[in-house]
UniProtKB/TrEMBL annotation:
One of its GO terms (molecular function) is ABC-type phosphonate transporter activity. Residues 2-246 form the ABC transporter domain. This is Phosphonate ABC transporter ATP-binding protein. The keyword Mitochondrion does not apply. The keyword Nucleotide-binding applies. It comes from the Bacteria. GO terms for cellular component: membrane. NCBIfam families: ABC_phnC. Keywords: ATP-binding, Cell membrane, Membrane, Nucleotide-binding, Translocase, Transport. InterPro entries: AAA+_ATPase, ABC_transporter-like_ATP-bd, ABC_transporter-like_CS, ABC_transpr_PhnC, MetN_ABC_transporter-like, P-loop_NTPase.
Amino acid sequence: MIEFTGVSKVYPNGTKALNDVNLKIEEGEFVAIIGLSGAGKSTLLRLINQLIPATSGKISFDGINVTTAGGKELRNVRRQIGMIFQGFNIVKRASVLTNVLSGRVAYHPTWKTILGLFPEEDKQIAYRALQRVDILEKVHSRASDLSGGQQQRVAIARALAQEPRLMLADEPVASLDPITTIQVMDYLKKINAEDGITTIANLHHVDLALEYASRVVGVKEGHIVYDVQIKDIEKQTFLNDLEKVYGRAIHNDEILGEE
Ligand SMILES: Nc1ncnc2c1ncn2[C@@H]1O[C@H](COP(=O)(O)OP(=O)(O)OP(=O)(O)O)[C@@H](O)[C@H]1O
């Protein structure tokens, strides 16, 4: 579904964030990207929907070269990719419904969406998306009145309303407490399992990666240094392997479940 071939990213200030990355992700996978702060995880994620452009190499999404796509073709790719951020990125002064309906904008002419003219069918899609994350009762609340975990669920509902085939989650739980973290990860996993939506999540906690992902990819200094299918590995082997990614062993107190 997604293929990186020799992809590098150098930011305008000269920072080499990714260096000759080759990576293939198949439909339906739940991939956790792990690595130290600054390793290049966010860059890797954002290249997929061209939030940032690659410096060299090729990224394809279902055979479409997104690195050269523009206009209609790029819009078509982006429509299929939902995105969730650490800071939720929802419009706080707007209602929950308005936020979720914004996931539908790519399906309509801009002038209609600016005027808030969404067809009834879209509202039904938004209600269903909110139901999936058990927050339908908040549909008319102002987003700013919700807790962080609830706001992230609204963000997931907005991404779902887009009817995506791929979900990119950039540190989706980094701002949440451990209990809310589990809830949000459970929703992402459920959506991946039930809808077959391919999911790629940057995660700071390695035990979340181990528990929720089907595959873990480790990034270090812009290179992919680790790539494992979770079903093929014992927990202790996985923890030992993390030295390749973090440059040192992981201690028990760095694991969420041990906090
Ligand atoms: N817009 C930018 N301009 C210049 N350098 C950048 C920019 N964005 C990221 N970088 C640099 O690129 C490198 C990779 O950053 P990236 O955000 O991809 O890492 P990360 O693994 O996601 O880190 P974190 O876990 O802290 O979010 C870092 O050295 C970072 O400082």
